[in-house]
TrEMBL record:
<keyword id="KW-0804">Transcription</keyword>
<feature type="transmembrane region" description="Helical">
    <location>
        <begin position="630"/>
        <end position="648"/>
    </location>
</feature>
<dbReference type="Pfam" id="PF00104">
    <property type="entry name" value="Hormone_recep"/>
</dbReference>
<keyword id="KW-0238">DNA-binding</keyword>
<dbReference type="InterPro" id="IPR006201">
    <property type="entry name" value="Neur_channel"/>
</dbReference>
<feature type="transmembrane region" description="Helical">
    <location>
        <begin position="925"/>
        <end position="950"/>
    </location>
</feature>
<dbReference type="Pfam" id="PF02931">
    <property type="entry name" value="Neur_chan_LBD"/>
</dbReference>
<dbReference type="InterPro" id="IPR001628">
    <property type="entry name" value="Znf_hrmn_rcpt"/>
</dbReference>
<dbReference type="GO" id="GO:0003700">
    <property type="term" value="F:DNA-binding transcription factor activity"/>
</dbReference>
<feature type="transmembrane region" description="Helical">
    <location>
        <begin position="1305"/>
        <end position="1329"/>
    </location>
</feature>
<dbReference type="GO" id="GO:0043565">
    <property type="term" value="F:sequence-specific DNA binding"/>
</dbReference>
<keyword id="KW-0479">Metal-binding</keyword>
<keyword id="KW-0539">Nucleus</keyword>
<feature type="domain" description="Nuclear receptor">
    <location>
        <begin position="4"/>
        <end position="80"/>
    </location>
</feature>
<feature type="transmembrane region" description="Helical">
    <location>
        <begin position="956"/>
        <end position="975"/>
    </location>
</feature>
<dbReference type="InterPro" id="IPR035500">
    <property type="entry name" value="NHR-like_dom_sf"/>
</dbReference>
<keyword id="KW-1133">Transmembrane helix</keyword>
Length: 1364
């Protein structure tokens, strides 16, 4: 580190020499990006003298770039680049070109004709690309491409891909032009996306997307892709990067990552393209096309299997094929995402695609009312044309000559400043991230101003006084929420509506979620109060050019309902901050809110108090036991540290330390001081002399002296390296007749435990826990107990004595967890020596899985003494004496049937083997329930589905492939679990027969039936009439013009005029399913489906004129749709794209659509009765842009097709769902509320929290009052109980919101702590009282039992209260 130099630009540690100067990586990357992209910056101070250092280098890019040049940084010139390849061959791609994939695979033209043709034509395609783009360029190294270059590459690639498709598939070549067009559109996107993913994977550039010519899109620096701004574009490069970055990441995850994981080869890539392109989902094609799809897929799969078996010798071709086929859904998802990506670009003109690429890739009224509505629509159409004919929304309506020095006008000659009316309609607290000091609000507001260019005389346009249009069509003042950390606006631009009145007043309603940085004072935490502001300003304009009218806050809900569980709103008001003349005034919406402290008081402060009190008492009881006091101190410190960690996670790092943190720190100081006092007190007590000797000590000392003398005498001449085995039995060097041989050494072996641990079937390895006892006689270790004061046995380390070599034969592995220093043996006075061994033994056992999963196996653990001659020892193999019942010796998958012993008599030269035989059987329930029964149902359903609607052949093949994939999954389970034995398992035979049955069933119905001649004629007639109807309906229809009639209250029309009725909006909830409840955030998420219907008489027709067509389906974007808002929603997710959103239109003008969304709403929760709590939450729907007298909303009853019992989830159940109308009395738009009552299923908390806590408390009180004299033990029990209760409190802290009311369960825990504390104090007092007077045992009732009964009764009452 000492030798590293500093960056010459920003003065942080340098990274070496880059571009001619010593700089850091950040400055080197900044210089390269700025120079390469030729970016131009402006100095923020306009003097180009900003100070550049590490902390401020990003504040002024202009001065940073100038400093780079000043220190000598420069790019290499073009003649310094290195040529990578100089080949210009027209026949093939140069082998050294880094822009082409590697063609190093050899295929047999006759064995794999389809893939061979694809491979050869792809090679030609790459060669043609190279010659087209880089034939005359010496340096062909890849480089990042831009958005314009990307489009140019693929526009040129269209013709090449079409040639590739024609030469690769005869089926495509023989198609008609219309069919070719449909297939090529699908092929182009599929091939482009799949090829980019394959080339990215094959070239190892995982942070890029490699395009057709070998260049790449740099995913880590997308600003190089979207770098060139264009005046026709509606978004900046930085906006494009922010919008499209997630789409690129998703495509990489769906294609590149799976390709890399599977190590996809070029042949597999081409096969995937073939299988994806020939897709039966392409509509409006003749039957022959679908037959071609099936034919091409079959030939591709057949060739791919041949390629696996003969060309690369794949060990498991079918498994590899299945894994490759599973990539198809992710490819299809990426294609859909890319198409949506392109649609979005072109819809919002944000880096839109070239047109050529884009085309490849995308109730009844009366006659009088009808005439009135037609007249209104004509007048509205004429009005909008007249108003917007010369209107430019890019020009402001603000008068800017007021301060001009170039005009000579008196003040009275100037028009008044622009009046901007601002009004807050709702501000609801969503979240407080205290650590970041970030506060989020749901903020709804109305802005109105006057645009004199948009005035008209209502009398000239049939009395129209106002109408609605898209906000993008009018000029809007630049309204800024200043000091905002983040702003989320859920409405797309295409749905933002503005209203225009005849006097030129323009306005709109906006609902956003705004996050502001608010300095929080947490000194009084958790009783802290804060005031935060949302600041609105118009900073782009001079103060004398406009005037702001900030109206009082008009909230639709009481302030008490605008907070959340942890914080309550105290006050909301508005104020204006007057700024200096050069700056804009700021309109402030001030929100004062206060924390509900109940959560922290009950779950932190009270437990901390009890922990400290108990710790102090425990420290001063039995002060001699210093290690125990240190343990108590450490336990207290850990508990206090846990509390501090909660504070550290929740609170910001402000200047002031919270009072609660000071309390915790003082508690730590007190406990440390107490322990220091105890240590000092112990040493003071040691100054006094007192006699601790007893008679027991004298006896024990004498025993130790005798044992020491015995061991010295025994081991004085003892050598453990010499065996005790007599080896003269078979000696030929002695006269055996003259010898009286001692008997052979008797070895006693006894199995005490044999428990099954694991069965690794694939390796045929079975692991047991084996405990056994071994005893023998060593005559060198005998003594007379009378000589050593009666000692008949003693214990010593095994390493001190000779031990026979006992071997577990045929063991794959033996694990002995005891170290040598802990292995003990016993020695009896008659010379008997023995020891106990516990080991984990893995043996190889031949498994017969033919009857899997009902298979039975027998395995043996073999023990032998192979080092000694058979005539020198004798083994006594005793019967097994197990310490547990045999039913408890298996595991979850296997049960033990029997355990016995036997002896395998070997030939005289080998040792006999003592066998412990174990027979065990598999528990088949898992495989029957999760494999066999589902496989049976899959097969039955597949057979039924195959023979239903047999005309749909593609669907049958899908069913067949699904069945094959399911059966393949079952086979994969078997392959993972079972050994590769000679006999295949019966279950595998069952799966294979199932596959044969489903294939046979599909073959039986392989006889397609198309439409009859009459049916075909009828269908074509219907299509023709529908096309004509579409043309006539939408010829003069404008979806931007609303269907609302706005003349009802117009003062410019005759009061006796006939008005059509209000627009009636019917809204009905069709599904309300609970998805998730995030209790800590008080956020509830639903799956919310609803139907909306209204009438637009512009879309009426006579069915008799159009072949009897009574209704049609259109995309929602083609018709006017009322602006529907889910108000008070924290988040709304709509999974449907605009292309997928459909509406129905009936001949009477009735229009409707079905919408499925996932809204998340903030719902104030009352968890007082947790976990038996219930809550009512609502999703609110309103049409807030329109005047109340222009429409009527009809609240229809909820119509959910599923029973209420199916609408909840595992933790919550839905009790009822209903819809009500909330009348706002004309202040704001009416709100339809869909209310849901949810109730928690308490079983989890009762079983895993409440009942265990109850038994812990019962047992704690019982243990406290049993043998009350052992006070230190009682304090340990008390602290253990507190730690258990603290764990329960931690569960509550994780699950529950910090509401005002303390949950009953928390109260139960606190009362339990109080009972434990009082029990401890009662014991202390009782022990002191007993020391004052002698009691004779059994003469009086023990008072501690009375107290125990009282406290147990308190525990029981405390438990019962929870449920009432």
């Amino acid at each position: 580190m000492k030798n590293r130099k500093y960056c010459a630009v920003c003065h942080q540690l340098g990274d070496g020499t880059h571009f001619g100067a010593i700089v850091c990586k950040a400055c080197a990357a900044f210089f390269k990006r700025t120079t390469t992209l030729k970016l131009d910056f402006k100095c923020r101070k306009e003097n180009e003298k900003c100070v550049i250092k590490m902390s401020s280098r990003d504040s002024c890019k202009k001065c940073r770039y100038l400093k780079c040049l000043a220190v000598g940084m420069k790019l290499l010139s073009e003649d310094q680049t290195v040529s990578l390849c100089d080949s210009s061959s027209l026949d093939c791609v140069p082998s050294c070109s880094p822009r082409s994939p590697k063609f190093d695979t050899k295929l047999d033209q006759f064995q794999t004709p389809t893939l061979f043709k694809l491979y050869s034509n792809y090679q030609k395609l790459c060669s043609t690309r190279f010659n087209l783009h880089y034939r005359n360029i010496s340096n062909s190294s890849p480089r990042p491409c831009t958005h314009e270059e990307f489009q140019k590459i693929y526009i040129e690639d269209v013709k090449l891909q079409n040639i590739f498709l024609e030469e690769s598939y005869d089926e495509y070549k023989n198609m008609g032009n219309l069919e070719k067009q449909r297939v090529f559109k699908h092929f182009f996107v599929t091939f482009m996306m799949t090829e980019m993913g394959f080339r990215t994977h094959s070239e190892g550039r995982y942070n890029n997307f490699v395009v057709a010519n070998g260049d790449y899109i740099d995913l880590k620096s997308l600003d190089t892709f979207y770098h060139k701004p264009d005046e026709n574009r509606r978004c900046k490069p930085t906006d494009a990067v922010r919008i499209y970055q997630p789409a690129f990441t998703q495509m990489k995850r769906n294609i590149v990552d799976p390709f890399s994981e599977k190590k996809l080869s070029i042949i597999e890539f081409l096969a995937l393209v073939s299988l994806s392109v020939w897709n039966e989902s392409i509509d409006n094609n003749p039957t022959e096309f679908y037959q071609n799809c099936q034919s091409v897929k079959e030939k591709t799969i057949r060739d791919l299997i041949t390629y696996y078996e003969q060309d690369i010798n794949e060990p498991d071709p079918l498994f590899r094929l299945g894994s490759i086929l599973m990539l198809l859904p992710s490819i299809e998802r990426s294609i859909q995402l890319f198409v949506q990506h392109v649609e979005f670009k072109n819809m919002f003109q944000c880096y839109a695609f070239h047109q050529r690429l884009y085309e490849i890739i995308h109730d009844t009224l009366t006659k009088e009312q009808d005439e009135a509505y037609d007249s209104f629509m004509e007048n509205q159409d004429r009005l909008t044309k007249d108003l917007f004919q010369n209107y430019n929304p890019d020009f402001t309506t603000i008068y800017t000559l007021r301060s001009s020095n170039s005009v000579n006008l008196s003040d009275s000659s100037h028009p008044p400043p622009l009046n901007m009316n601002f009004k807050c309609r709702n501000i609801k607290l969503v979240d407080v991230v205290e650590r970041e000091e970030k506060v989020s609000f749901l903020f709804d507001w109305i802005a109105e101003w006057e645009d004199r260019r948009l005035r008209w005389n209502p009398a000239d346009y049939g009395g129209i006084e106002h109408f609605y249009t898209l906000q993008k069509n009018v000029w809007k003042p630049e309204i800024t929420v200043s000091d905002a950390h983040d702003i989320v606006d859920f409405q797309p631009e295409s749905q933002k509506i503005a209203w225009i009145n005849s006097n030129g007043t323009v306005g709109f309603y906006l609902s956003i979620i705004v996050s502001v940085i608010c300095e929080l004072d947490v000194y009084r935490f958790p009783r802290d109060t804060h005031t935060c502001s949302v600041n609105i300003m118009f900073h782009a304009y001079f103060k004398n050019e406009y005037h702001i009218t900030n109206e009082p806050v008009d909230l639709p809900e009481p302030a008490s309902q605008l907070g959340n569980g942890e914080f309550q709103i105290l006050a909301i008001n508005t104020s204006t901050q007057i700024s200096p003349p050069g700056d804009a005034d700021i309109q402030k919406i001030n929100v004062t809110f206060r924390r509900n402290p109940g959560f922290y008081i009950s779950l932190i402060m009270i437990p901390a108090l009890f922990i400290n009190v108990l710790s102090i008492v425990a420290v001063f009881v039995n002060v001699e036991n210093i290690p125990e006091k240190l343990t108590i101190g450490l336990t207290n410190i850990m508990a206090m540290t846990f509390i501090l960690s909660i504070l550290a996670d929740d609170l910001p790092k402000t200047k002031k330390i919270p009072l609660l943190a000071i309390y915790v720190i003082l508690s730590l100081v007190i406990i440390v001081a107490a322990i220091c006092c105890v240590v000092i007190l112990k040493y003071v007590r040691k100054m006094k002399w007192y006699n601790l000797t007893r008679d027991q000590d004298e006896s024990y000392d004498k025993f130790l002296e005798n044992q020491d003398r015995l061991t010295k005498d025994l081991f004085k001449n003892y050598n453990p390296d010499f065996t005790t085995i007599y080896t003269l039995h078979s000696s030929k060097s002695i006269n055996s007749s003259g010898y009286n041989h001692p008997p052979p050494l008797n070895l006693n072996f006894k199995c005490r435990m044999l428990k099954l641990i694991d069965v690794v079937e694939k390796e045929e390895k079975v692991t047991f826990l084996v405990d056994y006892l071994a005893e023998w006689q060593d005559r060198r270790l005998r003594w007379n107990p009378k000589d050593y004061d009666g000692i008949e046995h003693f214990y010593t380390l095994q390493k001190n004595i000779w031990i026979p070599e006992i071997t577990i034969a045929d063991a794959h592995n033996v694990i002995d967890f005891q170290p040598e220093s802990q292995k003990i043996a016993w020695i009896n006075s008659n010379g008997t020596v023995g020891f106990y061994v516990s080991a984990v033994v893995s043996v190889i056992c031949q498994l017969d899985v033919y009857k899997f999963p009902r298979d039975i196996h027998t395995c043996s653990v073999n023990v032998m003494f192979h080092s000694y001659f058979k005539n020198e020892y004798q083994i006594t193999n005793e019967q097994i004496d197990l310490s547990q019942p045999i039913s408890e010796l298996g595991n979850g998958e296997f049960q033990i049937l029997s355990i016995n012993t036997s002896t395998l008599i070997a030939d005289p030269r080998n040792a006999d083997i003592q066998k412990v035989n174990v027979t065990f059987q598999r528990n088949p329930g898992f495989y029957i329930a999760l494999v066999i029964i589902p496989a049976l149902f899959i097969n039955v359903l597949s057979i039924v589905a195959v023979f239903v609607n047999i005309e749909n052949i593609p669907e049958k093949f899908t069913i067949g492939l699904t069945n094959v994939m399911a059966m393949t999954f079952v086979l994969s389970i078997l392959a993972d679990d079972l050994p590769k034995t000679k006999k295949p398992p019966l279950l595998a035979i069952y799966v294979i027969i199932s596959l044969v049955i489903i294939v046979a069933a599909i073959c039986l119905i392989f006889n397609t039936h198309g439409l009859s001649v009459d049916e075909n004629i009828s269908y074509r007639r219907f299509l023709s009439e529908q096309k004509r109807l579409f043309k006539n309906l939408f010829e003069d229809y404008d979806a931007d013009i609303s269907a609302l009639y706005t003349l009802t209250n117009s003062s410019f029309v005759d009061e006796y005029s006939i008005h059509p009725p209000k627009l009636t909006l019917y809204l009905q909830c069709r599904m309300m399913k609970l998805i998730d409840v995030v209790e800590k955030e008080e956020k509830v998420t639903f799956l919310f489906d609803y139907v909306v219907q209204w009438q637009d008489i512009r879309l009426q027709w006579d069915p008799n004129d159009y072949g009897g067509i009574t209704h049609i389906y259109v995309q929602q974007k083609n018709i006017w749709i009322p602006e529907i808002t889910l108000s008070d929603a924290h988040d709304v997710i709509d999974f449907q794209t605009d292309q997928q959103k459909t509406a129905w239109v009936y001949y009477n003008g009735s229009i409707g659509f079905y919408t499925s969304s996932v809204p998340s709403v903030i719902c104030q929760m009352d968890v007082f009765k947790f976990p038996m709590d219930s809550h009512i939450c609502s999703v609110n729907i309103q049409f807030h842009t329109y005047l109340l007298d222009e429409y009527k909303m009809i609240n229809q009853p909820v119509n959910i097709p599923q029973p209420v019992g199916y609408l909840g989830n595992g933790e919550w159940k839905v009790e009822w769902v209903n819809a009500t109308m909330w009348d706002t009395e004309g202040v704001v738009a009416d709100i339809q509320q869909v209310q849901v009552k949810i109730k928690r299923n308490p079983g989890f908390y009762i079983a895993l929290v409440i009942i265990p806590a109850f038994f812990i408390n019962i047992l704690t009180v019982f243990a406290l009052f049993y043998k009350i004299e052992a006070l230190p033990e009682k304090f340990s029990l008390g602290l253990t109980n507190i730690m258990a209760m603290t764990f329960i409190i931690a569960i509550l802290a994780d699950d529950l919101p910090k509401t005002k009311q303390i949950p009953l369960l928390a109260i139960y825990v606190i009362v339990s702590l109080v009972i434990t504390i009082f029990s401890l104090f009662s014991i202390i007092i009782l022990v002191k009282i007993k020391k004052l007077k002698c009691y004779e045992g059994g003469q009086k009732l023990k008072f501690e039992y009375v107290l125990m009964f009282v406290f147990q009764l308190a525990n029981f009452v405390n438990f019962i209260v929870l449920f009432f």
